[in-house]
Specification:
heterodimer; A: mainly beta; seven-stranded mixed β-sheet; four-stranded antiparallel β-sheet; 0% helix; 56% strand; globular; B: mainly beta; six-stranded mixed β-sheet; five-stranded antiparallel β-sheet; 11 strands
């Protein structure tokens, strides 16, 4: 496989469930990101990992818990979510966030619906 | 507050004409600027990047950057119906590990 792959593509979960989103990149990048995309709002940066260390957490509620076991894999663990958390969750990767000359490659996203 | 502003549109352009998309940003120390295209139900796709003042051309696309005015634009020449999408402006403010800040996007419609 090439690029950035996300699973699952669609997820419906209840507010008391625990689920995880998975992201894998095959590009040799060393930074990975979670973004949330809601209708009529800009993409919201949630977490940044550089060289497997979390370098940014944009005031995201604790019901979202990221994990980056290595430079190729990124997870977003979900528990006790709210209906307003329903959105498209996008994973992205890039080469060295300190380098100005690269944009991101996005995965296809997980469409999450909380019921 | 880091902000990236775009007109949400829709911007309607006849086929074959030039589509002009605009973006302003709030942080003067911003270093890198990107345009992404997002089709409905799909993820964003990088189409252009620009780092220096002036124009950068790639095929039918031209990105323009004016750091003094904190303004970046994207021109699409010979617009095609397949160009109909939402175009997202993104700014890497100061580099480092801050991540990209995105605008809300401009919905572009190319009329056949």
């Amino acid at each position: 496989e090439t690029g950035v792959t996300q699973t699952p593509r669609h997820l419906v979960m209840g507010m008391t469930n625990k689920k995880s989103l998975k992201c894998e990149q095959h590009l040799g990048h060393n930074a990975m990101y979670w973004y949330k995309q809601s209708a009529k709002k800009p993409l919201e940066l949630m977490f940044v990992y550089s060289l497997e260390e979390r370098v940014e957490n944009n005031s995201v509620p604790s019901r979202f818990s990221p994990e980056c076991p290595n430079s190729s894999h990124l997870f977003l663990h979900l528990h006790t979510l709210q209906p307003e958390d329903s959105a498209l969750y996008l994973c992205a990767s890039s080469q060295d966030p300190g380098h100005h000359n690269y944009g991101y490659t996005f995965g296809s996203g997980t469409r999450l619906t909380v019921v | 507050q880091k902000e990236v502003e775009q007109n949400s549109g829709p911007l309607s352009v006849p086929e074959g004409a030039i589509a002009s998309l605009n973006c302003t940003y709030s942080d003067r120390v911003s270093q890198s600027f990107f345009w992404y295209r997002q089709y409905s139900g799909k993820s964003p796709e990088l189409i252009m990047s620009i780092y220096s003042n002036g124009d950068k051309e790639d095929g039918r696309f031209t990105a323009q950057l004016n750091k003094a005015s904190q303004y970046v634009s994207l021109l699409i020449r010979d617009s095609q119906p397949s160009d109909s999408a939402t175009y997202l402006c993104a700014v890497n403010i100061g580099g480092g590990a801050d991540g990209l800040t995105f605008g809300k996007g401009t919905h572009l419609i190319i009329q056949p």
